[in-house]
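User: I've been trying to design a sequence by hand for this structure and keep getting stuck. Would you show me what you'd pick, starting by listing the structure so we're on the same page?

Assistant: Good idea, let's start from the same input. This is the structure you sent:
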C-alpha cells in the first residue's frame, strides 16, 4: 500500500513537461559535468555533454561562457575523433573557431 502511494510522487519525465519549458536542472547538470570532464582532460565526455546541453536549450548555450571558451580550445587541441564534433557544435552555437 505504501509503495503504491510513493509511485505518484515521482517527478514526471522531461518529455511530459510543457513544450518550450527548459529543464534548468538538466541544463545546469550537463554544463557542470562538461566543465568537470574538461578539467580532467576528457574531451569526448565534455563535447558529448555540451551537445546534450545544446539540445536542451540552444538559446541558453549561445550565451554560456564555459561553452564559448571551451569549444575553440577543443577544436584546436582535442583528439581528432572529437574535433569535428566540437567544430560543428561551435558553428551551431555561433562561437568563432
Amino acid at each position: 500500500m505504501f509503495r503504491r502511494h510513493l509511485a505518484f510522487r515521482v517527478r514526471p519525465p522531461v518529455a511530459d513537461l510543457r513544450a518550450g519549458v527548459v529543464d534548468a536542472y538538466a541544463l545546469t547538470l550537463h554544463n557542470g559535468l562538461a566543465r568537470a570532464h574538461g578539467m580532467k582532460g576528457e574531451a569526448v565526455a565534455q563535447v558529448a555533454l555540451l551537445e546534450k546541453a545544446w539540445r536542451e536549450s540552444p538559446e541558453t548555450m549561445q550565451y554560456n561562457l564555459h561553452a564559448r571558451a571551451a569549444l575553440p580550445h577543443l577544436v584546436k587541441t582535442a583528439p581528432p575523433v572529437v574535433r569535428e564534433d566540437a567544430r560543428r557544435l561551435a558553428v551551431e552555437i555561433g562561437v568563432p573557431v
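That's my pick for every position. To get oriented when you compare it with your attempt: The mean pLDDT is 83. The CA atoms of residues 19 and 56 lie 12 Å apart.
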